[in-house]
């Protein structure tokens, strides 16, 4: 299968990966031949990339890091918890948290087990989602990224569970931001941006009053937009004044935000998201954490078209553990001409080669 831009789709292209809505319901199933109307609809609803079938890449696979059951359970748990916290006037006396608190921890434990059992680096492009309300899927994605990073950093199981719990609830304060502001397709005014920024403190106040929610989870909500140089919000904390978990969540939150579809912006590819993080290394984000994060995620996802420094073009076919920026490449073009028979190279062994560019339109589908 091959990852391509929705703008490069043509009628008759066969979808390789199912497209879901935020509730896990199928919008377009894998194996469907796309019509022009379907393609226009995908662009209208903001889907940036999809996987399609083709003969030269039919054996290339990519898998979501958690099972459908765990993903659906997590989304439903996040949604029901957020809804409860938004609607409950007296959170401190909300008996519902005696049940949801443990349920959420169970979900975190299941996600952690599957993330740690996932053999490849994390690739959340592996299934395509569209949603009217991205908060719940974003919360799950940030949890997966945070647990992968925490594992790479060597955190013990108890601390990973705390981190995962805080990650799932880090954006609960956004339930109090007016929807017309949160999902505004255009540029926010200064007043609107101030309303959005209030979600950190709002989330902290909601969570610290809930009797079964660990206080550290409240601080995850409070501090995940703080930055090392004091330029973050809401308190402008610096360096070691920022909780360790919040530093992890800041990286996971930004990476998922820029590599996911939003009403106001198309998704970036993972290598572009990492460039954003590295541009803030040492000033906004902890550089050691970014280095660990790079080892945890698929910089160049399977199925992505890449241009190498010697002019050859190909498709990422397989990942190298701990060397996510040096994957296996299936070469399909040399010097602008299709090869008679494709072959694979391992960039971890071809150190003279680097990825110069990657795109979802570099190769014609007729190659």
What is the radius of gyration computed over CA atoms, rounded to a whole number of angstroms? Answer: 21 Å
Series of secondary-structure elements, N-terminal to C-terminal: EEEHEHHEHHHHHHHHHEEEEE
Q: What general form does the structure show?
A: globular
CATH superfamily of the largest domain: Hypothetical protein af1432
Q: How many distinct beta strands?
A: 10
Class by SSE composition: alpha+beta
* Architecture per CATH nomenclature, i.e. the level-2 architecture of the largest domain: Orthogonal Bundle
Low-confidence stretches: none
The N- to C-terminal Cα distance equals 14 Å
What integer is the average pLDDT?
88
- Total domain count: 3
Q: How are the strands of the largest sheet arranged?
A: 9-8-7-6-10
Largest sheet: 5 strands, antiparallel
Helix content: 40-55%
Examine the coordinates and then state which fold CATH places here, giving the name of the CATH topology of the largest domain: Hypothetical protein af1432
């Amino acid at each position: 299968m091959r990852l391509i831009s929705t703008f490069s789709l043509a009628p008759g292209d066969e979808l390789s990966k199912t497209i879901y809505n935020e509730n896990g319901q199928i919008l377009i199933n894998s194996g469907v031949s796309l019509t022009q109307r379907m393609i226009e609809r995908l662009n209208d609803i903001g889907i940036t990339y999809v996987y399609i079938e083709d003969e030269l890449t039919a054996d290339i696979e990519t898998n979501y890091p958690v099972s459908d059951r765990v993903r659906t359970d997590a989304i439903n748990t996040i949604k029901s918890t957020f809804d409860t916290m938004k609607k409950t006037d007296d959170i401190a006396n909300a008996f519902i948290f005696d049940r949801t608190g443990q349920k959420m921890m169970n979900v975190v434990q299941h996600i952690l087990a599957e993330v740690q059992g996932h053999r490849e680096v994390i690739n959340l492009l592996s299934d395509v989602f569209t949603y009217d309300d991205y908060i719940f899927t974003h919360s799950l994605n940030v949890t997966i990224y945070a647990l992968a990073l925490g594992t790479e950093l060597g955190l013990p199981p108890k601390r990973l569970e705390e981190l995962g719990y805080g990650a799932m609830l880090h954006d609960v304060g956004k339930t109090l931001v007016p929807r017309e502001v949160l999902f505004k397709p255009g540029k926010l005014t200064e007043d609107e941006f101030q309303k959005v920024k209030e979600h950190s403190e709002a989330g902290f106040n909601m969570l610290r009053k809930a009797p079964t929610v660990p206080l550290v989870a409240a601080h995850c909500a409070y501090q995940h937009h703080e930055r090392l140089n004091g330029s973050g919000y809401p308190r402008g904390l610096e360096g070691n004044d920022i909780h360790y978990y919040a530093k992890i969540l800041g990286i996971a939150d930004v990476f998922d935000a820029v590599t996911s579809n939003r009403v106001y912006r198309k998704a970036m590819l993972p290598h572009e998201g990492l460039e954003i993080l590295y541009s803030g290394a040492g000033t906004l984000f902890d550089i050691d954490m970014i280095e660990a994060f790079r080892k945890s995620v698929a910089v160049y996802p399977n199925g992505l078209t890449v241009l190498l420094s010697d002019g050859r073009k190909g498709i990422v076919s397989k990942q190298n553990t701990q060397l996510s920026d040096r994957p296996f490449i299936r070469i399909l073009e040399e010097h602008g001409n299709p090869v008679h028979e494709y072959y694979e190279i391992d960039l971890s062994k071809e150190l003279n080669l680097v990825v110069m560019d990657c795109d979802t339109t570099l190769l014609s589908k007729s190659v």
